[in-house]
Amino acid sequence: LGILGWVGVILACGLPMWQVSAFIDVNIVVAQTIWEGLWMNCVVQSTGQMQCKVYDSILALPAEVQAGRALTVIVALLGLVALMVTVVGAQCTNCIRPGKVKSRIVVAGGAIYILCGVLVLVPLCWFANIVISDFYDPTVPPSKKREMGAALYIGWAATALLLFGGCLICCCSCSPRDETSFPVKYSAPRRATSNGEYDKKNYV
Fold first, then answer.
1. Which interval of the chain is the signal sequence (predicted)?
2. Collapsed DSSP state (helix, strand, coil) of residue 105
3. Structural domain boundaries, residue 94
4. How far apart are CA 166 and CA 75, in angstroms?
5. Any domain includes 201
6. What is the pTM of this model?
7. Does residue 199 sit within a domain?
8. What 8-state DSSP symbol labels residue 198?
9. Radius of gyration of the chain, Cα coordinates, nearest whole angstrom
10. What is the pLDDT of residues 84-126, one digit of tens each?
């Protein structure tokens, strides 16, 4: 689940469909559709032809786009770290001896997945709030109104997978006691005495 969420975040980060043009009121010309993403904006013609242009200046971008870029890239890197940490602490690997340390490493990996889900939720909700506010704002012209694109929904699904996967990892790794930390002791085998009977001290 964590890996699927991580891949979903990377997909949402690269897709240009964070905001799409809204066809309302007088803006009913559907000959072209405008897509706006974190890295580029695209114009899709009704014939299927698409033209995309990468943003020229980073500093001239709105604050939500800059924050979305930074947070999604950080989440993509943190997701890779979480994957490696979880693999190191997994029961199917021998990188670390089984015990409390290995269990804590797995919990750390799950916590990083949860952190990724929380971080990527910030730009998604920020964009959604701006789109909804502008859509119902009467001062914004209809040609400038936008709707939520597919990338936002992919990002929310990825967030749910990251949070759920991270919680599962943490819950499954936290056991009430670590049985491997207690040494196993076996009683010595009973030995027969010279007359063929067992020593009475074995029954004490």
1. 1-22
2. helix
3. 1-174
4. 14
5. no
6. 0.74
7. no
8. B
9. 28
10. 988 887 776 676 777 777 788 888 888 999 999 999 999 999 9
User: Tokens at residue 181, please?
Assistant: 């930390």
- What is the DSSP track for 166-185? HHHHHHHH--SS-GGGSPP-
Spatial separation of the C-alpha atoms in residues 135 and 177, rounded to whole Å: 54
Burial call 55-83: b when 16+ CB within 10 Å, e when fewer: eeeeeebeebbebbbebbeebbebbeebb
The C-alpha angle 165, 65, 23, rounded to 5 degrees, equals 95
Question: Which residue, 123, 138, 16, 135, is CA-closest to 62?
Answer: 123
Report if residue 33 sits inside a domain.
Answer: yes
| Length in residues, the chain | 204
CA distances from 188 to 93, 191, 198, 200 (A): 34, 9, 13, 14
Number of separate domains in the chain: 1
- CATH number where 77 lies: 1.20.140.150
Encode pLDDT of 30-88 as tens digits. Answer: 667 888 888 888 888 877 788 888 888 888 888 888 999 999 999 999 999 999 988 88
